[in-house]
């Protein structure tokens, strides 16, 4: 796919990019090359290829899910301005 100067200007406008007039031909060539590569990749048969979450076959190291702190709600609510039934009361901000 070949992009012309008008296409590059339209893309730059949509992306809210300010580009120099002198660079438009270079952008047109680069963007056309990228689109050609994408078109070439679309022709490859990928029916038997499984989708991957990561290109490397690795798994994350996981740690056990352990509680490391005690519940301190009573302590924190003791210094709160207003609480009721274990909840913090705040002023109404929306009518």
SSE layout and pairing:
Layout: H1 5-14, H2 24-42, H3 73-78, E1 83-84, E2 87-88
Antiparallel strand pairs: 1-2
Protein described:
This protein has 95 residues and is mainly alpha-helical. Helices cover 37% and strands 4% of the residues. Strands 1-2 form a two-stranded antiparallel ribbon. A hairpin with a 2-residue loop joins β1 (83-84) and β2 (87-88). The protein starts with a helix and ends in a 7-residue tail after the last strand. The model has no long low-confidence stretch (mean pLDDT 91).
Spatially, the strands of the biggest sheet line up as 1-2
The amount of helix comes to 25-40%
Number of strands: 2
What are the segments in which pLDDT stays under 50 over at least 5 consecutive residues?
none
The class by helix and strand makeup works out as mainly alpha
Order of helices and strands: HHHEE
Mean pLDDT: 91
Shape: elongated
CA-based gyration radius? 29 Å
Total helix count?
A: 3
Give a quick account of the main beta sheet: strands, pairing sense, barrel closure. 2 strands, antiparallel
Binned strand content: under 5%
> End-to-end span in angstroms?
56 Å
């Amino acid at each position: 796919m070949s992009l012309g100067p008008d296409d590059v200007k339209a893309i730059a406008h949509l992306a809210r990019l300010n580009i120099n007039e002198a660079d438009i031909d270079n952008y047109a060539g680069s963007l056309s090359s990228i689109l050609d590569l994408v078109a070439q990749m679309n022709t490859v048969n990928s029916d038997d290829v499984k989708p991957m979450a990561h290109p490397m076959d690795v798994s994350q190291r996981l740690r056990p899910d352990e509680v490391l702190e005690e519940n301190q709600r009573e302590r924190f609510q003791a210094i709160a301005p207003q609480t009721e039934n274990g909840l913090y009361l705040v002023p109404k901000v929306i009518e």
